[in-house]
Amino acid sequence: MATVKVSEAEKVYILHGIRDDLRVDGRSCEDYRHMEVETDVVSNTDGSARVSLGHTAVLVGIKAEIGKPRPLVPDEGYLEFFVDCSANATPEFEGRGGEELGIELSNTLYRVFNNKNSIDLKGLCISAGEHCWVLYVDVLLLQCDGNLYDAISVAIKAALFNTKIPRVHMSSDDEGGKEVELSDDPFDCVRLSVENVPCIVTLCKVGHRHVVDATLQEKACSVASLIIAVTHRGTVTCVKKVGGGSLDPESIFEMTEAGKRVGKALHAPLMKLLQQEESLGKKREKVGFLG
Amino acid sequence: MLKSKTFVKKTRAGGVMKIVREHYLRDDIWCGSEACRECKQESTVLQADACIESNLCPYPHYVVPDTNVVLHQIDVLEDPVIRNVIILQTVLQEVRHRSAPVYKRLKDMIQAKEKLVYTFTNEHHRETYIEREQGESANDRNDRAIRVAVKWYSQHLKADGLKVVLLTDDQGNKEKAEENSLVVYKFDEYVKNLTANPELVDRLALSKDDKAEIISSKVLFPEHLPLSKIQSGIKSGTFLQGTFKASRDNYLEATVFVQGDGAESTEVLIQGLQNLNRAVHQDVVAVQLLPRNQWVSPSSVVLQDDGAAKDDDMDEDEEEKALRISAAEAAGKPTGKIVGIIKRNWRPFCGMLNVSQIKESTRHLFTPADRRIPRIRIETRQASTLVGQRIMVAIDGWPKNSRYPNGHFVRSLGSAGEKGTEEAVLLLEHDVPHQAFSQNVLSFLPKMPWGITPEDMVKRQDLRHLTVCSVDPPGCTDIDDALHCRELENGNLEVGVHIADVSHFIRPGNALDKEAANRGTTVYLCGKRIDMVPELLSSNLCSLRSNVERLAFSCIWEMNHNAEILKTQFTKSVINSKASLTYAEAQMRIDDTNKKDDITESLRGLNKLAKILKRKRIENGALTLSSLEVRFHIDSETHDPIDLQTKELMETNSMVEEFMLLANISVAQKIYDEFPDCALLRKHPAPPPSNYDILLKAAKSMNVEIHTDSAKALADSLDVAKVDGFSYFNTLLRILATRCMMQAVYFCSGMDSDFHHYGLASPIYTHFTSPIRRYADIIVHRLLAVAIGADITYPDLMDKHKQSALCNNLNYRHKMSQYAQRASVAFHTQLFFKSRGILNEEGFVLFVRKNAIIVLIPKFGLEGTVFFDSKDKAGPSLVFDEEGPTLKVEQTTFHIFDKVKVTISLDDSNIQHQKIRMALTEPVIPGVSVAAPDVEPQAKKPKVDH
Amino acid sequence: MAGLELLSDQGYRLDGRKATELRKVQARMGVFAQADGSAYLEQGNTKALAVVYGPHEIRGARSRALHDRAIINCQYSMATFSTAERKRRPHGDRKSTEMSLHLKQTFEAAVLTQLYPRSQIDIYVKILQSDGGNYSVCVNAATLAVIDAGIPMRDYVCACTVGFVDETSLADLCYAEESGGVSSLALALLPRGGQIALVQMDARLHQDHLDTLIEAAMTACKGVSKVLDQVVRQHLQEGSTLRE
């Protein structure tokens, strides 16, 4: 992540502002920056979404492939996550520079999203023990300006919403051999229910208060943050502390409550936007990176 | 220029891949009509006044056939009557995917200017492109695309007074088109109302409704598996893919040739109608192996499907039973059954009609000339005129409840038995391109009068002063080689082989070159030659006739008197041959000690060296094998054969041959050194040891031992193989040895590692010396010219894959031309015997089969089969011993090499397969042998030998 | 089944273009705020993002610095979802290392590096979607990004992939053409002087055809340069109107 150097005087200014619920860019503590979401931006994926949050920009592409179910859960498909911290985002990521962060991010995402409460994994199974869909969720970091988790989670939810998996059926021949057969009709595809897919809210402890969607400067003033995965009903599915400092139990409780509130409020406009885009269908003019 | 996208999904290796391709739509695609004033096209194809005599569409119109009409009715569409056709891109693409041969014909049709066929790129036209809709199948989408394009055309051309007629046999498509108020007809409806050519109706392929009528409901064959299942089966190894080769001798038997990895390949035997399951010769099929205990061995029984129109009754059981019994005796070969057809390789077949016994019937069975092709049921109203004619028929389909495939009449070739007709049949059946050269091809010929220009001389040596002469068979007009020999000042000899410089006239890539590459070789039939290159070249400009200046490609050696090569030089040259001699004339000059002129001295020098060369070659293990070649003396008036003799070889024959071999070897080495990756060479693989089995067995029966470890061992043991009192034995043995050999083939040096020429015992070989009649030689000339800097190269010459593909074609053409040649000899032999009546001749047993012996008559170089069983009556007892092999008929046992006497007559009971019938007269076997005819008194003399 | 027919008798390619026609090129400069220069470019379905950082101090080993000019540091990578079959790694394989090197060579020929001695210019290019001509699209995108960063260049560097089939040169190959057995050639051109910054060809082609193919590539590159020029002018216009 691009490092920013913040002077002591700046730090004090930021801290005081947050204490008074007025942040440097004019937001209050629980406000997000301007967010843009667009789906179906990479035509050769099965689902994709582009999200920008402030200057943070991520692109998520999902490809569905046929694989073998995990032995412990033979009747479920699964998701795989890969986060590509590309050098585009910052020269520090050049070569293998982004690998560590990438692994940390993808492991967290796997925990948050790959479970049957958020996604109908059974629906991804084609034939128990033999074939299932594996959704490769590939996240591409294009620019880092803080609050990666939130931006990524929104992009993943949007991309999952956009995902169209070709419909397949099992055909069996005389010898008992089974073969996966693809539907002949390109329109014949399965959509995923993203109702229970959570969004991640990162809360940054700055001074005695906490803020959502911290900028890099704010982050530099914070001791530690807490990431909370929240569904549209306000159910918390995952809590994780990240960062070097420590948090007392009380503030964790407070932050969780705030996270629930913010997360719940995040889902509604997102789903509205996604549905709106969907209803436009082919008529929608794609903007992508050209806008 | 607008743009949109199509999304295609594909699976590969079990996975699913989403493939996205761009698809641009254009507004600069024109309609191709002369009448149109809207389109800004530079040239047009379709006429403004597009009229055809029709009861149905008397107005000017263009026709648009849909995919199935093109696929099934191409024979009718090709007729010159049908013009002003629009082929949509959608149709063209579908045809391309579904049938390569039809696609090729369609493309030829589009290119033929007089056919007036316009290809409309509707898929990229802004107003005719449509996207597939939800729930719509790919076929429905294409049908809709066709309708949209027709609609566009009708509106586009409305103002110009032209209509557009959609032709489809699909009822659903037709109804939808009518809803859109398009002019639409079924294809047969349209064709039947054409007053211009009523015969076209016969060429219509049967539509589905017609088929349903004919065939019984009884299902005779197992269902073919769908392609997807076949593919997965082949992948998993349950099925094998291969080319289906029907047996010539037994219609219930076939082999499937399965190409394995690398050089490995296997043959799977298929027996019985059910297992053959409607596969036709040359189809690519999927086979399933039967369990090992059901494996059989190929039967030696000769079975022909010549029952009268048996039609759909399966009373083949008895024959099949016979087959089984005879087959079960020996250990089995891999045996299987056909489960599906991967690719049909149907082409129009030559043959004759068996007219139905029912007078009014329009359905008749057609018997192809090629016995490997099943009989075909066709529908025609002109049966009475077609009887006795050779006709061509195409197969349309073979439903599972029909004993025979269904087809339709294509065209008539003429009366059976007439020489012209039979020659046409022969050429068609052997796929020999024999049409007259097109204007396009002829346009690349040099302009007459032709002369050598100074530019021609730049890279040439002037050898006009040399005493060059040519030696060829009598009547030869395409002389491609000439020779000279002279003594040098240092006492050595200079020998030159001069080959016609055909590559000077045929430049790479033009129509003339492509035509020659396709033809591959000149085909020599009895009394007829089908040229590879137009006559102006073959018999004039490239023919090294005497006393004219000709361009040549020369290979000149300096040799000592022991015929050792001291120096080799290749050069393009100009020569002036001093004499065109026949073998006999040359022989006479050499033998005539009074002659001392330059030509004769040159010939003597050559002859002397040739003898040394030949001796050396034989010492190296080159094989001299025999095959009896037959020549006909053809009556100059009637062109019928009046006498027949086997070819006689003279010393001068082998003199020319030796130098040609030497030139070929020298050139092969040179081009290989220069282009190790793309030299065109010729190899002759050593036969696998099992090929020699029959030869070894035969020799052993006469207590002669043959060694086959190497070519040299074989040559040596053949030389000493003699049996007292049986002078013809050695020749017979050599004939047998010839049959053991592999076919020599052209190949590209970059694609193979084994270059050896077994028969000539040369490590490397090519063809350089007959560019007028072999295309391989032209390529070799070009390579050599580049190697010596006399010519420039071009891309395809250096592309080993393209060259390899060319070699495949040349090998195929070469093989077919040999077959055609043999067939032509056979036909003339029949003509000969037709006029001779029944003859009684002496012959030798060449092979022994389970129910027959094959007899060679040395006098005529004729081979024939003497059958011992017949269908109508109980045959004699036959005991076949494979070890001998011997066949015991009643009390008489036949071995290979047995001397027998047979009567020879022409059996023209089946006009299509006129054949030479041989019947045994000696040894006498009661009930089997026949009495010798009285015509020839010497046959009556009792003869007792061996 | 028959393979693809790359050029129909009517002269249309698989996607409906004529032999010399380019795909639709669309581009935007200044996509990202944090980088010194950035650009996004689509050429048909091949889409690339280029980002430029610098000129800045040498990162890492100072010994790499050149006393008379700037070093150009390139990294080429592909999004894992950019190809039809998912890639396992975005970069680091042989192909992308080679591609990085080619980009470096191309831009060393174009950027006036002597203006920035002892410094470094980073050019990072990411393929978001791949449909043939990856190298060319990267070069074109990177050119715009370098211009966006305000780094002086001799000229635009324009690249195009061309192929040869049936005696015809095809401009700007798409993936189906590249993989369909066309001998392809990639060429980067500095159009004003007609200088070739990079030319690369892996396939087998007869020497006689090379001139026509290079000629076709140069024509195609000039076509690309027109589009790039337009993009740059429009970008500058927008920028100046905003500032007013």
From TrEMBL, chain A:
Gene3D superfamilies: GHMP Kinase, N-terminal domain. Transmembrane segments: none annotated. It comes from the Eukaryota. GO terms for cellular component: cytoplasmic exosome (RNase complex); nuclear exosome (RNase complex); nucleolus. It is found in: Cytoplasm; Nucleus, Nucleolus. Coiled coil: none annotated. The keyword Disulfide bond does not apply. InterPro entries: ExoRNase_PH_dom1, ExoRNase_PH_dom2, ExoRNase_PH_dom2_sf, Exosome_comp_Rrp42_subfam, PNPase/RNase_PH_dom_sf, Ribosomal_Su5_D2-typ_SF. The keyword Iron does not apply. Residues 32-166, 196-261 form the Exoribonuclease phosphorolytic domain. GO terms for molecular function: mRNA 3'-UTR AU-rich region binding. One of its GO terms (biological process) is nuclear mRNA surveillance. Keywords: Acetylation, Cytoplasm, Exosome, Nucleus, RNA-binding, rRNA processing. Component of the RNA exosome core complex (Exo-9), composed of EXOSC1, EXOSC2, EXOSC3, EXOSC4, EXOSC5, EXOSC6, EXOSC7, EXOSC8 and EXOSC9; within the complex interacts with EXOSC2 and EXOSC4. The catalytically inactive RNA exosome core complex (Exo-9) associates with the catalytic subunit EXOSC10/RRP6. Exo-9 may associate with DIS3 to form the nucleolar exosome complex, or DIS3L to form the cytoplasmic exosome complex. Exo-9 is formed by a hexameric base ring consisting of the heterodimers EXOSC4-EXOSC9, EXOSC5-EXOSC8 and EXOSC6-EXOSC7, and a cap ring consisting of EXOSC1, EXOSC2 and EXOSC3. PANTHER family: EXOSOME COMPLEX COMPONENT RRP42, EXOSOME COMPLEX EXONUCLEASE RIBOSOMAL RNA PROCESSING PROTEIN. Belongs to the RNase PH family. This is Exosome component 7. The gene is EXOSC7.
UniProtKB/TrEMBL annotation, chain B:
Its cofactor is Mg(2+); Mn(2+). Residues 61-175 form the PIN domain. It is found in: Cytoplasm; Nucleus, Nucleolus; Nucleus, Nucleoplasm. It comes from the Eukaryota. The keyword Flavoprotein does not apply. GO terms for molecular function: 3'-5'-RNA exonuclease activity; endonuclease activity; RNA binding. It holds the Pfam family Rrp44_CSD1. The keyword Membrane does not apply. GO terms for cellular component: cytoplasmic exosome (RNase complex); nuclear exosome (RNase complex); nucleolus; nucleoplasm. Belongs to the RNR ribonuclease family. This is Exosome complex exonuclease RRP44. It comes from Oryzias latipes (Japanese rice fish). The lineage of its organism: Eukaryota, Metazoa, Chordata, Craniata, Vertebrata.
From TrEMBL, chain C:
Residues 21-152, 155-219 form the Exoribonuclease phosphorolytic domain. It is found in: Cytoplasm; Nucleus, Nucleolus; Nucleus, Nucleoplasm. SUPFAM superfamilies: Ribonuclease PH domain 2-like (SSF55666), Ribosomal protein S5 domain 2-like (SSF54211). GO terms for cellular component: cytoplasmic exosome (RNase complex); nuclear exosome (RNase complex); nucleolus; nucleoplasm. Keywords: Acetylation, Cytoplasm, Exosome, Nucleus, RNA-binding, rRNA processing. One of its GO terms (molecular function) is RNA binding. It holds the Pfam family RNase_PH. One of its GO terms (biological process) is poly(A)-dependent snoRNA 3'-end processing. InterPro entries: ExoRNase_PH_dom1, ExoRNase_PH_dom2, ExoRNase_PH_dom2_sf, PNPase/RNase_PH_dom_sf, Ribosomal_Su5_D2-typ_SF, RNase_PH. It comes from the Eukaryota. Belongs to the RNase PH family. This is Exosome complex component RRP41.
